[in-house]
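pipeline: protein-struct stage 2 | run 1193 | WIBG Mago-binding domain-containing protein
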Amino acid sequence: MATSNEKSAYSIPATKRPDGTWRKERKVKEGYVPQDEMATYESIGKKIVKNQSSSMPPGLVVDTTESSKAKSKAQKKNEQRKLKKQLKNQPSPASHDNVQNAADKLEKCTIGNQPTSTDEWNKPTPDHSQLSDSRKRNIQKKLRQIRELQEKLDSGEIKELNAEQAAKVSKKAQLQKELAGL
């Protein structure tokens, strides 16, 4: 866009801005291209994507003839078979009721002298030897914390117990009984 004068100096002619004011004529060196006229930089990746105008995978040859779109008789039969299989494999509401009835009957069945309901299985056994050492340690830890709270209260470090601390102290007798039972 730069033009040469009679003195062999290059210049950009005055132009009108969108708001109506005029830009001054500017003197520039030979070969200068204004920023507005420069092509924007385009990375290699963008160029590759731009060149791949189709959304098809590279190397795929698309046959646009109608013969490739029309399905053969065998393909149509295969599709119908697949649809029938899918419909057959979907459970119907009636079969769901049958399954539910069978499940109810199985719950009522007994084998030998085993209890029939699951509640009888879940009852805790009276044998206390099965309680783990971790439960004992847990109770001992709680009792130790209660003891520490009472010592702090007696020494005056704590003026009042909050709700959680009071609830913990109130469970002391219950925890001692449980520990003695173990």
